[in-house]
Write a structure and sequence with these properties.
The structure is a homodimer.
Chain A (H helix, E strand, L loop, with lengths): L12 H21 L5 H12 L3 E2 H8 L3 H14 L2 E5 L7 E5 L1 H25 L2 H9 L7
Antiparallel strand pairs in A: 1-3, 2-3
Helix pairs in contact in A: 1-5
Chain A binds a DNA duplex through helix 1, helix 2 and helix 4.
DNA sequence: TACAATTCTATTGTATACAATTTTTTTAAA
DNA sequence: TTTAAAAAAATTGTATACAATAGAATTGTA
């Protein structure tokens, strides 16, 4: 007993999360590439498909990303034609992000392309523990 | 039913892992900063404290990182004086990483500094589900 | 109403990550 | 044993992330 406190890789929940998260992203990436999305821009599209016309900071809160990450990401997505960035008329500090027609259209393609991947991961997700993970992990959002 | 397949942020285990992993790293970072370590170099030190004198590729396998990440990271850690990088005499392709005295000495300081953090996180880890997480997450290492 | 504090986005600087390629060395095969 | 294939590390290019700071706009307050 007490040995659980020792510093080592296997003991670190943090390492498990880190490795796991990267692995998961790598499973998605080749599929997302066909949609010209990275994992981060995919998450951004997910957030926008749920709630369109949202400020940069609100979007960042949803995704746990700050303006230093969001600004260049959104500029790139604008250049790709998925979104528009427009400064609010009422408060010039605020920039609203909106899906373009192309951005909205991507939803259908994404659903289609990801369904196969989701099915194969689904065989994992259907394991008893996966539902548990979905509920446990948010408790660890530490920030 | 069926609605679980819908594309949205809350449904994505991947997003939960991603957010959770980042949050965890941010809890560690301020403490690690006092040791002049980033989270990645901390993981590297953990691996080396467990097994000293190891090749770059073996180290990368342990940490799930490729040479494109390892090489600059290790060069920086060498400059900091934590490790040495020496090409193998038997196979000139291989570079062995070894802890310096300073690198070994860091173990004690790390244990001390992290104990407080680990205690406060420990109250979380002691929850019934934390032990489960430790066992479940490795099953998701997809690469 | 001046002006201090706050808010929001953008910028700068540093540190990861990984795919793809290159270089050097070693191994395997014809 | 020449030559093709493989292996290991390094390099190049692209994409994140986040801390710290800056700059512009807005809000709160004396």
């Amino acid at each position: 007993m007490g040995n659980d406190d020792a510093l080592n890789l296997e003991n670190e929940i943090g390492f498990a999360l880190y490795a796991c998260s990267k692995g998961w992203i790598q499973k998605y990436s080749p599929v997302l590439e066909r949609l010209n999305l990275t994992y981060t821009s995919y998450l951004t599209m997910l957030a926008l498909w749920e709630q369109d016309k949202i400020s940069v900071s609100e979007l960042g809160k949803k995704l746990y990303l700050d303006s230093g990450t969001m600004t260049p990401l959104l500029k790139k997505m604008e250049k790709q034609g998925f979104i528009s960035r427009d400064r609010s008329e009422f408060d010039e500090r605020v920039v609203f992000i909106q899906l373009t027609e192309k951005g909205r259209a991507l939803h259908k393609q994404a659903t289609k392309l990801l369904s196969t991947l989701k099915e194969s991961l689904g065989t994992m997700e259907n394991n008893s523990w996966a539902e548990g993970l979905k509920q446990l992990l948010p408790k660890l959002y530490l920030k």
